[in-house]
Amino acid sequence: MSLGHAAARKRRRRAAAGAGRPRRHRLSMPPAPGASDLDLSAMSPAMVDRLFWRAGFGPTEQDRAQWTGRPVAEAVRWLVSTPAGVAGTPGTREGKPLDPTADDTDLVLSWIDRMVRSTNPFVERLTFFWHRHWATSRAEVSPPQLMLRQNDLLRRYADLGPNASASFRDLAREVTTDPAMLRFLTGERNVRGAPNENYARELMELFGLGVTDAAGRPNYSENDVQQLSKALSGWQIDDRDPDQAKSYFTPDRWYNGPKIVFGSFGNYRYEDAVDLVLARPAHAPFLVAKPWGEFVAAPLDGATLQQLVAAYTGSGLRLRPLVEQILGHPALFASLDEPDMVKPPVVFAVGAMRALGAGVTDTSAVDHLDAMGQVPFFPPTVAGWEGGLSWLNTNTALARFGFVAGLAAQQKLDDVLGETPGAAYDRAYAAVGRPWVARGSEQAIRDYAARAASSTTRLRRERQLMLRALLLAGPDGQVM
Hints:
Elements: H1 9-16, H2 45-54, H3 61-67, H4 72-81, E1 92-93, E2 96-97, H5 104-117, H6 121-133, H7 145-156, H8 168-176, H9 179-184, H10 198-208, H11 222-231, E3 235-238, E4 246-249, E5 259-261, E6 264-266, H12 270-278, H13 283-295, H14 302-314, H15 319-327, H16 345-356, H17 364-372, H18 394-410, H19 421-431, H20 439-451, H21 457-473
């Protein structure tokens, strides 16, 4: 996959054809009516579950006990203001500490481990959202320390407690000169006399504006791409010491001369290039739709779009006010009785690990995520992952079920002599964190428990294992 070259351009254009719309992980069904009638001042257990799935990796029993009956706004404030942290025993690989610079498997496992042990999972969830927005692949970036540095950068703009004033403008400026991005989109080759247009194009097309506005008008021209690339020239990477790798600006490699971008004339540099893009009328509607589509399944209506744009632009493009409005919006709690958003593989896998109390001990998480179609640090294109129903097919569904079955098999499966089918179901349900299960699914799983052979210790344990796998990785376990 050579994303920075012309051979990949056509594929990237296809992936970006909907770049003006958020990449939603949702089912093709309208939201259930009545979300606006919910009492946001007192969350039900189902509302707690919904919030912590959409803004994290699923609820814990502590989350349910802490937030049931309390206002949505309080829980959202906790999510966006609580600093990042990890707890528990660090992950290992076959008994050895993880080393993210040793190989790519440990690189991925290290982030999965952090997600699993996160004390405020929203920070890691938002970090992963930024990773998909500014999609950068280790397949094109070396050494791996550059990816780790970028990961830390994105986390600073997801950890909105200590960084409450974080803005998209500051994030965009930092990513623009980030070594991983400079290498991924060949920005380090962008020099005076030989402009490289890759990053300039994607800054407008995928990261800041989208291809067209709401009326279908182009948001930029080929001349804008050419002129913006000149403004972005002059940056290099010093990675002689990978652990101290950094980018730096070389004035004599920069196109020092007049440029006309979006009809404006000036001798622009990189920070000006970012500001010119973010000042376009199409930017705010494009950008606010991205996190909306990440957390909310319902389409973004015109009135809500205006409110979010006002909050975003009125705060100076700050991220926290925007995120707070989205997470606290009634639409997030639509269709509680029939969840309508597909869990991306990473959310599914990390959620299952947290529900089962399983940590990183081997490579199974990476192996299964690869089969599910989503490996962190390896987006398939600069447009990220497609998402939605594309996550689910025969192969990926089997990979999801196999991953959970493997995790469940590692749990202590006590044999309860004389355990009734109903008691076996209840024990399994509690063991996997009491997830949402539709009534029809519950009855079908209970019917299985009643039919399953249980005359020996081995058979009863097999029944218990299958019940846990069905509850956590059956059809209902795929949605949130």
